[in-house]
Structures are given as structure tokens and as C-alpha cells.
Design goal:
Helix content: 25-40%
Number of helices: 15
Number of strands: 12
Shape: globular
Order of helices and strands: HHEEHHEHEHEHEHEHEHEEEEHHHHH
Length: 388
């Protein structure tokens, strides 16, 4: 077991070209301490999360149907992080090993995106830096700038194999254009000989894209990307309602797995089918309160995570107003940790979560939630200017 762990760590260091971390013992010490505390679940943490997300913007150029943006379920203010504030926030995480500069919006819409990546690479040379993007804004200029920009990993979310499905799922996008953008990225990476970023494409299993995972795998093989991710979307607080059966998931996942093996397509994230998915009696327990999903909004607020990405609905405190350590072990964090240890969800959002409550395939009362028209979104969210 110990040898396997050492081998896995070596592979991660090699893949991300992160061997420089070995000359930063304080980073490794924090990581070991965090792993210990993550297992023990104390109320007071003495280590920092090694993985964090800092949101550059919550604006987006698309309006995906599974997203709060389209459903209008949450009130929130649009905005971009100030570059100097990003620097201030990053300075509070000297031990970060994995940084996502993502959040609720499209990171490529942030004007100083490349400055952020270059600055982070300079200040945290050992760090894995990644983003999730819809890929629609990656033209030739951006493709060339992305090569050896300092970005370690670029994940492009697609969620469909066919144009009609893509138009329904990712409103405002064009699959033909996106496919050309992906081919351009792969081509540019080969022409420049760049090692990074690693290029991946994502498929979230939704009600609307049944049967498209296998052709998606085949398209990934044709593109020549480095990897794919297959994800089950489980976030009812966002308004999503799974209508697929367990058997439907199982059959499609097995077919896709077989096709990946045939084509040699690497899948970094693949759903782990588990009987507890359909067990509504499984007690609530969430590791987010110990930093598994540590998310900082563009405003500097530490939120619940992807489940509630807005300061307007939940904030532990603001890193531009208070020191990290004052927030990390404040009364609210300690209360939520204590409740989680008692298997009690500390908020309505937590109580509705399928990731840890595991009620994904159980019958639920259906509610009809209409999508906000694209025309309405165009003046605010989709491609809109940040709120003042």
C-alpha cells in the first residue's frame, strides 16, 4: 500500500511537471498535516487546504440548462475580481498545490486571464493550475498564448456529441465552432511542441444527452485530446432533477468504458457506480467543511463551494477583510464541522445535495422550472458587463 501511494505521487508529479515542490518542504509539511486532519476531522484545523478555487468572474457567454444562470433560482451580483485582489488572496495560500481559477463564470472572459496565470506560475512554481472552460472563446490567438502560458490543465466542457443536443444543453453555443476550436488547440500544441496545458474534454450525463457518451468518446479519440472526464451531475439545489434510471446509467457507462479501452482514450474522472446512490437513508456527511472544495468568489468571500457559489446565499467570511486563519476556524466553520460529524446538514443546500446524501435515483416530486429566455440573459449574464 505504501509503495502504491509513493508511485501514485510520483506519477502526479511527473504528469504535472511539479518536481520543484520537493524543494519546498513547508508545502509538503502542510500537505501531510492536511491529509492527517482530513482523516481525523477536527473542529480546529491547523493546515490549509492544498486545493483551492479562486473565481475570476461569474459572467458567462453561455446559459446551460443545468445551470443556475438559466434557471434564475439564486440572486447574485455579476462581477470580475480585481487583479490586485487576486494577488492579495493568493498571498494567503503559500502552500497551495492545486489551483483552479474558475468559479461560476467563463474564465476566458476575464481580461487579465493570462496575467493571472503568469503571476501564479511565478509565485507558486510547483502548483498545478487548471481551468474549466466552454471553449467558445478560444480563437487562434488565445490558442497560441495558452501554450506554455503556465496553465497546467485546460478542461473544455461539452456535454453532447451532436449539434442539436448541444444547442439544447449549452444555450448560446455552437458545436461545430467548438469542435474546430478543440482541433485548433490540439494542432497548435503539436506544432509548438508545448507540453502544457494538458487538454481534456468533459461530458456531464444529463437527461437530454442519453446515448451520446460513446460517440463523445469516439470524438475525443479523433481530436487527439490528452484525456476526457465523465461526470454525473448531482446538484438539486441548482434545480436539476435526474429522470434517468440506474439501469440507464449503468448500460451507457459500461458501453463507454468498453469503447475507451478499445480506442485507448484516457478517462481521468469516471463515475463510481454505488448502490448507495439509491439509498435515501444514508446519513449525510460532507468533507467540504474540511476544505475538500474550498472556493473563493470574485468578491473575496469563501462560499459553501460549487453547491452554493454565491456570497449572497452563503459566506464564511471575506479574505479581503479578514485573514484566512481567522475565517478558517471561525464559529461558523466549527459549527458546520460539528453538525457534519453528527450527520446533520447545516443548511438547506446541504440537505438537498445528492453528492453525499446519495438519493440520486430515488423518486422525487417533480417541479417545473422554466428557463430564462436567452434574450433576457443577453443583457445581464450572457456576455454582459459586470455589475457596478
Amino acid at each position: 500500500m505504501a509503495f502504491t501511494s509513493v508511485l501514485d505521487n510520483y506519477r502526479r508529479l511527473k504528469e504535472n511537471d511539479a518536481f520543484t515542490i520537493l524543494v519546498h518542504p513547508a508545502v509538503l509539511k502542510n500537505y501531510r498535516q492536511y491529509q492527517k486532519e482530513y482523516r481525523e476531522r477536527p473542529l480546529i484545523m491547523k493546515s490549509q487546504p492544498p486545493g483551492i478555487e479562486i473565481e475570476l468572474t461569474n459572467r458567462c457567454n453561455l446559459a446551460c440548462i443545468q445551470c443556475l444562470r438559466s434557471l434564475g433560482l439564486k440572486p447574485y451580483k455579476l462581477g470580475d475580481i480585481e487583479y490586485e485582489n487576486f494577488q492579495r488572496i493568493l498571498a494567503q495560500f503559500p502552500y497551495v498545490m492545486n489551483l483552479s481559477v474558475n468559479g461560476f463564470g467563463e474564465p476566458m472572459m476575464y481580461k487579465r486571464f493570462f496575467d493571472v496565470i503568469a503571476y501564479t506560475r511565478k509565485e507558486r512554481p510547483w502548483c498545478k493550475i487548471g481551468i474549466y472552460s466552454n471553449g467558445m472563446l478560444i480563437d487562434q490567438e488565445k490558442a497560441e498564448r495558452l501554450m506554455d502560458s503556465g496553465l497546467t490543465e485546460l478542461n473544455i466542457s461539452i456535454d453532447a456529441a451532436f449539434p442539436n443536443t448541444y444547442r439544447r444543453v449549452r444555450r448560446g453555443g455552437n458545436l461545430e465552432v467548438l469542435h474546430e476550436n478543440i482541433r485548433r488547440l490540439v494542432r497548435t500544441k503539436r506544432q509548438t511542441g508545448a507540453r502544457f496545458p494538458m487538454l481534456g474534454i468533459n461530458f456531464v450525463m444529463l437527461n437530454e444527452n442519453v446515448g451520446e457518451l460513446v460517440p463523445f468518446v469516439e470524438q475525443a479519440h479523433e481530436f487527439g485530446v490528452d484525456f476526457i472526464n465523465c461526470i454525473t451531475f448531482a446538484a438539486y439545489d441548482w434545480g436539476f432533477k435526474n429522470r434517468r434510471s440506474r439501469e440507464s446509467y449503468h448500460v451507457e457507462l459500461e458501453q463507454a468504458k468498453a469503447r475507451m479501452e478499445q480506442l485507448g482514450v484516457r478517462c481521468k474522472s469516471f463515475p463510481d457506480e454505488n448502490a448507495s446512490w439509491s439509498d435515501p437513508s444514508k446519513p449525510f456527511f460532507c468533507p467540504f467543511f474540511w476544505g475538500e472544495e474550498f472556493r473563493v468568489a470574485y468578491s473575496g468571500d469563501i462560499t459553501l463551494g460549487c453547491c452554493t457559489p454565491f456570497k449572497e446565499t452563503y459566506s464564511y467570511g471575506n479574505l479581503l477583510e479578514h485573514d484566512f486563519w481567522d475565517i478558517w476556524n471561525n464559529e461558523l466553520f466549527q459549527r458546520n464541522r460539528e453538525l457534519a460529524l453528527r450527520n446533520e446538514p447545516p443548511s438547506k443546500t446541504c440537505a438537498s445535495c445528492d453528492q453525499f446524501c446519495k438519493t440520486f435515483f430515488t423518486q422525487r416530486e417533480e417541479t417545473t422550472v422554466g428557463l430564462i429566455p436567452m434574450a433576457s440573459l443577453a443583457g445581464s449574464d450572457v456576455g454582459g458587463r459586470p455589475s457596478e
